[in-house]
């Protein structure tokens, strides 16, 4: 069969278009060193298999840096805490919260050196925390709970790797942080309060997955696949946590991507809540929008944002959760 030149040209254009379309869904995902069951799916390449997209996974140390990368367009999907998320939404960045990654419990905590026995022993001491993080929000909430003026302690803005170094050098007296820095501090310090305990006192925090709205509009199937893989990993863990933890391969994969010590992983997993699909559909509505509003109000009180939006609903969506 003879193929005429115009037909060959049309075929070439069609092939190029198909190739471009196949590459159009490639994306960069910002993840953090939190301990969660979905780290196994990440290590196994399950996200790539389900979404049929090529994913560049980039590790970030805090949510503020994730927001900067998402805002610039360098990252399409990112993992961050409720505090930087509230700050980003308040600044009207083009993002949507499409999945609650975890309701934080023991995975974040305030650890102080031995000799600091009560909260008021923190007065005059140096406390390190990444600014505008869930740890920062929780630290300020804890100080408020204990009726301690933040001006009476020295709060230092340090990223987790810098916190590890500062703790080992003895440059700081306490830190509110997550793993692996949390584990390092706990080796020679003691926990004064966890985020789970603060949640019971009215200051809950959570981690979430967000997506740029322009990417989600073009590739909703990728976002849905990402959500499903995450929720499947959560369901696998929650069906039988003991059996899941008994698999050394699961522990090693989480440890490799989180930097947490394998021995600490069971406690960290048990200290957090990983919502399943039914819970997600409920949470990704009024509960999350209200939590963002409350967090933004707290950040405004602390001078971290200029105003609180009248409605945070445009920054939260349950449409990507599988039925």
Automatic annotation (TrEMBL):
The keyword Cytoplasm does not apply. Residues 26-241 form the Solute-binding protein family 3/N-terminal domain. It holds the Pfam family NMT1. The keyword Signal applies. GO terms for cellular component: periplasmic space. Residues 1-24 form the signal peptide. NCBIfam families: taurine_ABC_bnd. This is Taurine ABC transporter substrate-binding protein. It comes from Pseudomonas cremoricolorata.
